[in-house]
Automatic annotation (TrEMBL):
Its EC number is 2.7.11.1. SUPFAM superfamilies: L domain-like (SSF52058). It comes from Leersia perrieri. This is non-specific serine/threonine protein kinase. It holds the Pfam family LRR_8. Belongs to the RLP family. Its main location: membrane. The chain crosses the membrane at residues 602-625. InterPro entries: Leu-rich_rpt, Leu-rich_rpt_typical-subtyp, LRR_dom_sf. One of its GO terms (molecular function) is ATP binding.
């Protein structure tokens, strides 16, 4: 094909080394070569410039090429795009690439290159796009890159750059996208950059060590759409002028040390879709006008010191809100009635506040898409409404550490999203709009196997119910055994009676089961041995009896504390043998002895605590009262002299 100018073989399943037919003859007319998105491996050939000397476009990205970037590529003098991203290339960035004066786009990202950015890249005067993200680079940022005055986009993220942002970068007056996410950059944002980058659209300096106040000059970036300052050491308050930017879509300032209140003019940013100021020290009340931001689909104000009632609104309006995080604050009052307007809500996290009252019955009708409902550690009371069972997308229900009373509704067994298999949970992917500049904007903190974990992309990873630490009574509904996609179930520390549902073994995906600290009685169902995914089990502190089931996954759970304080249990892993004639039963005398043992333990702790308290009270009096202290030590001296005198007489 001597006349071939363009060859595109991208996004197939081609493998092997670099295609030999391209190297067997000189292709003087070839200008465009795209082999991206395949499985080619081996080195990039050094002879490529001789075989296709007139290449203008070369894309070898998303393959398995290894070795170093050939220095010979610098001889492709007409090349305007070079992309070798997403390969296994090593050996650093060649200095010779700075000689490719025609380059407009250079993409070397997602390779384990190592080394530093050559200062020679500052000679590429026509360069518009530079991507060296996730390339294992370890160095300071070369000031020479400030010579790239035509640069429009620069991505330096996910490396190990140290030092500060060079003021020379202010000469990139036309830059629109800048990212240095996940490095070790310190210092403050240079004022020269703030003055000159008037065309900037996306500014991402997240996960670094920048400090100082957030500059108010950012308010001059009137075209700014994405401002991402997450995970730095910024202090002070949020500049009021900055949050009035007319085109701002994303404001991410979480995990800093910001103080003050939320500026009221934040509500003037009518296009904002993503607002996150979590893990700071804000305080004050939540502005009511935030609910009227029609395009806002995520609001994360968790882990601050916000207080008062969550403001309500009597107006009816359209809302795009999908994910709302207000946990770990000091909010009080009742369940926010403003949520009636959020009919697209998927994630609701109000955990760790002081909200009280009952869960309203309208929750299923007004929030039909709820997939995550987390009300953990509040002061909610009353019964658990049966209407929760109408939430057909619910996959996480966390009502732990409240004051809920009454029985667990058997209707929860009708939760259709918890009845489907794990592989069917992809329905939630369509409910979460993507944000390209942010990773995993949808997350939830969950007490998982006894420890709190942050789960990302929860629609793929977690399905469970946590009703622990309440005042629930009655039996565990047998209908819960229908929720075959459950991964964890925790109803511990309640007042539940009756037996463990006999079909508990239907929960094939269950990894964590905690029924401890209740008044459950009867045998452990044999079907428990069918829980093949189980890695954490706690049935302690109940009134269970009979032989512990054996087999399968249960054999690996050999910690006796799993079954402790159940008088009638026997068998492995307990050191209590079972009789051959019948399973042991709990008698009234046994229960009485069990309670007497507990009373003995409490008496022991009480006496110990009293002794310690008395000692420190006595010591405190001596420490703070000089007269008593003098008398005490005088008495000690007198006793010492008397003893010494007696010893002399002997």
């Amino acid at each position: 094909m001597p006349s071939l100018e363009t060859l595109v073989l991208s996004n197939n399943h081609l493998n092997g080394t670099f295609p030999q037919f391209l190297l067997s003859n000189t292709s003087l007319r070839m200008k465009y070569l795209d082999l991206s998105g395949n499985a080619f491996s081996g080195p990039i050939p050094n002879s490529l410039p001789e075989m296709a000397p007139n290449l203008r476009y070369l894309d070898l990205s998303a393959n398995g090429f290894s070795g170093s970037i050939p220095h010979s590529l610098s001889r492709l003098h007409k090349l305007w795009k070079l992309s070798v991203a997403m390969n296994n290339l090593t050996g650093g960035i060649p200095e010779e690439l700075g000689m490719m004066s025609g380059l407009e786009e250079l993409d070397l990202g997602s390779n384990p290159l190592g080394g530093s950015i050559p200062t020679s890249l500052g000679q590429l005067q026509r360069l518009q796009i530079l991507n060296v993200s996730d390339a294992g680079l370890v160095s300071t940022l070369p000031a020479e890159l400030g010579n790239l005055t035509g640069l429009q986009g620069m991505d330096l993220s996910r490396n190990q750059f140290i030092g500060s942002l060079p003021p020379s970068y202010a000469r990139m007056k036309g830059i629109r996208q800048f990212s240095i996410n996940k490095n070790y950059i310190n210092g403050s944002i240079p004022p020269e950059i703030l003055s000159n980058w008037t065309d900037i659209q996306a500014f991402d300096v997240a996960n670094n060590m920048l400090h100082g106040n957030i500059p108010s000059q950012i308010s001059n970036w009137t075209g700014l759409e994405y401002l991402i300052l997450f995970g730095n050491n910024f202090t002070g308050s949020i500049p009021a002028d900055m949050v009035g930017l007319p085109l701002l879509l994303t404001l991410e300032m979480s995990k800093n040390h910001l103080t003050g209140t939320i500026p009221l003019n934040i509500c003037n940013v009518t296009f904002m879709g993503y607002l996150a100021i979590s893990d700071n020290h804000l305080e004050g009340e939540l502005p009511e006008c935030l609910w009227k931001l029609k395009n806002l689909f995520l609001m994360d104000l968790s882990s601050n010191a916000l207080s008062g009632e969550v403001p309500t609104s009597s107006d009816h309006y359209e809302s795009s809100m999908r994910s709302l995080h207000l946990s770990n604050n000091n909010f009080s009052g009742s369940f926010p009635s403003v949520l009636k307007n959020l009919n697209k809500l998927v994630v609701l996290d109000l955990g760790y506040n002081k909200i009280s009252g009952m869960i309203p019955s309208w929750i299923a009708e007004n929030n039909p898409l709820l997939g995550v409902l987390r009300l953990r550690s509040n002061m909610f009371n009353g019964s658990i409404p049966w209407q929760l069972s109408q939430l057909s997308h619910l996959q996480l229900l966390d009502l732990a550490e409240n004051n809920f009373t009454g029985p667990i509704p058997g209707s929860l067994g009708n939760l259709s999203s918890m009845q489907r298999g794990i592989t069917d949970m992809s329905i939630f992917i369509d409910l979460y709009p993507g944000v390209e500049s942010l990773s995993n904007p949808y997350y939830i903190d969950i007490v998982w196997k006894g420890r709190e974990h942050t789960f990302l992309e929860i629609y793929q990873h977690v399905v469970g119910i946590d009703l622990s630490c309440n005042i629930l009574s009655g039996e565990i509904p047998s209908e819960l055994a229908n929720l075959r996609s459950l991964q964890f179930l925790n109803v511990s520390r309640n007042y539940l009676t009756g037996g463990i549902p006999k079909d508990i073994g239907n929960l094939k995906f269950l990894e964590s089961l905690d029924l401890s600290w209740n008044k459950l009685s009867g045998p452990i169902p044999p079907s428990t041995s069918n829980l093949m995914s189980l890695s954490k089990l706690n049935l302690s502190n109940n009134l269970l009896s009979g032989e512990i089931p054996r087999g399968n996954q249960l054999q690996t759970l050999d910690d006796p504390s799993i079954y402790s304080n159940n008088l009638g249990l026997c068998g492995f892993p307990l050191k209590v043998p079972c009789s051959n004639d019948s399973n042991p039963k709990i008698t009234l005398e046994g229960v009485k002895e069990h309670h007497e043992d507990l009373e003995t333990v409490w008496l022991y702790y009480s006496v110990t605590a009293g002794t310690v308290f008395g000692f420190w009270l006595w010591f405190g009096v001596l420490f703070f009262c000089s007269a008593w202290r003098f008398a005490f030590f005088s008495h000690i001296d007198a006793m010492q002299q008397k003893v010494m005198q007696n010893m002399k007489n002997i």
